[in-house]
Automatic annotation (TrEMBL):
<keyword id="KW-0732">Signal</keyword>
<dbReference type="InterPro" id="IPR011330">
    <property type="entry name" value="Glyco_hydro/deAcase_b/a-brl"/>
</dbReference>
<dbReference type="InterPro" id="IPR002509">
    <property type="entry name" value="NODB_dom"/>
</dbReference>
<keyword id="KW-0479">Metal-binding</keyword>
<keyword id="KW-0378">Hydrolase</keyword>
<dbReference type="GO" id="GO:0016810">
    <property type="term" value="F:hydrolase activity, acting on carbon-nitrogen (but not peptide) bonds"/>
</dbReference>
<feature type="signal peptide">
    <location>
        <begin position="1"/>
        <end position="25"/>
    </location>
</feature>
<dbReference type="Pfam" id="PF01522">
    <property type="entry name" value="Polysacc_deac_1"/>
</dbReference>
<feature type="domain" description="NodB homology">
    <location>
        <begin position="39"/>
        <end position="215"/>
    </location>
</feature>
<dbReference type="InterPro" id="IPR050248">
    <property type="entry name" value="Polysacc_deacetylase_ArnD"/>
</dbReference>
<dbReference type="GO" id="GO:0046872">
    <property type="term" value="F:metal ion binding"/>
</dbReference>
<protein>
    <submittedName>
        <fullName>Peptidoglycan/xylan/chitin deacetylase, PgdA/CDA1 family</fullName>
    </submittedName>
</protein>
<dbReference type="GO" id="GO:0016020">
    <property type="term" value="C:membrane"/>
</dbReference>
<dbReference type="GO" id="GO:0005975">
    <property type="term" value="P:carbohydrate metabolic process"/>
</dbReference>
Length: 241
């Protein structure tokens, strides 16, 4: 063996030895979940990152469940570490405005500014930009759709709600979520509601026991072939172009 080769080998050995443990301990890559073949559900958390997001992320990690977070830019700015963690742990991010105004009452330039500021904050926090948009209160119209188109995002609403913000009751949140959970449901929840985060271990375990895979919104809507500016589920009186 030449001197050069052996010293290269020595360097390689050192590199391997010094490699950080998480890289060596990384779990083998699993095949992505195919929601046309298995039962899927997308849990979505709005208005965050909320102050309890860390506990929620711990629960999701423990049960290998994925979720989608529709983030408010002002909280991305104040809690960037949660956003970074969401991306690192395989969750999906959506844009839910910067300050949560009713977009249907705003001028298009104002909507655009709200969306852009949030995209920029998420990029700063986690190095990626959301690819989905959920307007505040789930209210949408043509100018909102135009802005979503400009940013290359479909508008994602929800098929059912946990009503967590109204009940703020662990048992009621569990009961309501399990009652509305169906194949390919997109369920609205909030990570600023403490009781939602407290209910989550039981909800995740019950859903998994029923055979559901907890996946991102993009996994659930894969078959819909939504274009930027399209809304899903299609609101009453709306038609995607
Ligand atoms: Zn909201």
């Amino acid at each position: 063996m030449s001197r050069q080769v052996s010293s290269l080998l020595a360097i390689a050995v050192v590199c391997v030895t010094l490699a950080p443990a998480p890289a060596l301990a990384a779990a083998p890559k699993k095949a992505p979940v195919d929601c046309s073949k298995v039962k899927c559900i997308a849990l979505t958390f709005d208005d965050g990152p909320g102050q309890y997001a860390g506990t929620l992320l711990d629960t999701l990690k423990k049960y290998n469940a994925k979720a989608t977070f529709f983030l408010e830019g002002q909280y991305v700015k104040s809690r960037p570490a949660f956003v970074k963690r969401m991306v690192a742990e395989g969750h999906e991010l959506g844009n839910h405005s910067y300050t949560h105004p009713d977009f249907t009452k705003k001028e298009i330039w104002d909507i655009r500014a709200e969306v852009k500021k949030t995209q920029d904050e998420v990029k700063k926090a986690a190095g990626v930009e959301p690819k989905l948009m959920r307007p505040p209160y789930g209210l949408t119209n043509l100018p909102i759709s135009d802005v979503a188109t400009e940013f290359g995002m479909p508008i994602i609403l929800w098929t059912a709600g946990s009503e967590d913000w109204a009940s703020k009751d662990v048992e009621k949140i569990k009961k309501q979520t399990m009652a509305v959970a169906k194949q390919d449901s997109i369920i609205l929840m909030h990570d600023w509601v403490k009781q939602t985060v407290e209910a989550m271990p039981a909800i995740v375990q019950s859903l998994q026991k029923k055979g559901y895979h907890l996946v991102t919104v993009s996994d659930v809507i894969k078959g819909e072939e939504l274009k930027p500016g399209d809304a899903f589920p299609v609101p009453q009186g709306w038609s995607n172009q």
